[in-house]
Amino acid sequence: MKDYIIEARGLTKDFGEFRAVDKLDLKIERGEVFGFLGPNGAGKTTSINMMVGLLQPTSGEILIDGQEVNRVEKGVIGICPQELVLWDSLTPLESLKLMGIMYDIPPKTRQRRAEKLLSDLLLTDKANTQVKDLSGGMKRRLNLALAIMHQPEIVVLDEPSEGLDPQSRRVLWSYIRSLRDDEGKTVILTTHLMDEADKLSDRIAIMDHGKLLRLDTPSNLKKEIGEGDVVDMKLSNPKMNQTVIDALTPMKNIDMAVQMDERINIRALNAVAQLPTLMEEIEGIGVKIVDLSVRQNTLEDVFIELTGSTLRE
């Protein structure tokens, strides 16, 4: 029997006439990285804020370890918000010690934890540098360290890679995996980055317009839209995109053809073998292909299939 640490039942949040989250039902397993994937405004952050007790739902309930969320001890959850919450005049070491004092962590323990977090997140060399003098990536890693200084059982990360350079992102991703693999934490991750959700999450909830569209493992979600590859192409005259889509859709072995950012995405079985036929059909319409690539299905393809829009919109 699966061990669920968080359960949302009929979770709904209205802001006036606007429904940000619409009857959300889901369960999060203990010790998994659970990803919320969707565009900005999909309801991810609102859902998380209700699930950890920061926002009162309009209706529905949240259970954490079988208890109502407002009865859970404050130390069970650690929240790393998208916005940086730091003390500019303190150093990283001082900041972590101050957080330890807030959670009544004994002096020797908080010194040891602070030093380990600084080491794990590659901040040891900056331990005694004022926060205002840190780089953006260092500040975001410190933001995470502050959220887990008290060793919470549940770690909530809201868009943790926002604005990070590739090197800082790799450091952060590696540490998020270690929270699950080495410390057994339950990690809840909200993101609009496909590769982040795919690489880190054990299961993903895809949301849009406040609704849960799908919930499954990344691999199952990608299989859901069918076997095959995606042909991505740009035409010399984008105004002809719909004409080309109408011509390709009825063709054998073509699962789907849609327009995306003035390009055409075609999902087809054995796409490479289909290319000569596709190109002949398109050129017969009197339009040329100026750019073409073939790739495997991605989470963005799943999202397009479900919503008709891209994750970037």
- CATH class category name of the largest domain: Alpha Beta
Q: What is the terminal separation in angstroms?
A: 39 Å
The radius of gyration over CA amounts to 23 Å
Question: Which fold name fills CATH's third level, the topology of the largest domain?
Answer: Rossmann fold
What is the mean predicted local confidence, pLDDT?
89
Helix content: 25-40%
- Give the total of beta strands: 14
Principal-axes geometry comes out as elongated
Description:
With 313 residues, the protein is an alpha/beta fold. It folds into 2 domains: 4-222, Rossmann fold, CATH 3.40.50.300; 227-296, Alpha-Beta Plaits (2-Layer Sandwich). Helices cover 34% and strands 29% of the residues. The chain is built from 10 helices and 14 strands. The strands form 3 sheets. The chain has a 6-stranded mixed beta sheet, sandwiched between helices. The chain has a 4-stranded antiparallel beta sheet with strand order 2-1-4-5, with helices on one face. Helix 2 (92-102) packs across helix 3 (107-120). The model has no long low-confidence stretch (mean pLDDT 89).
Which features would summarize this protein structure in a list?
elongated; 14 strands; 313 residues; six-stranded mixed beta sheet; 34% helix; alpha/beta; 2 domains; Rossmann fold
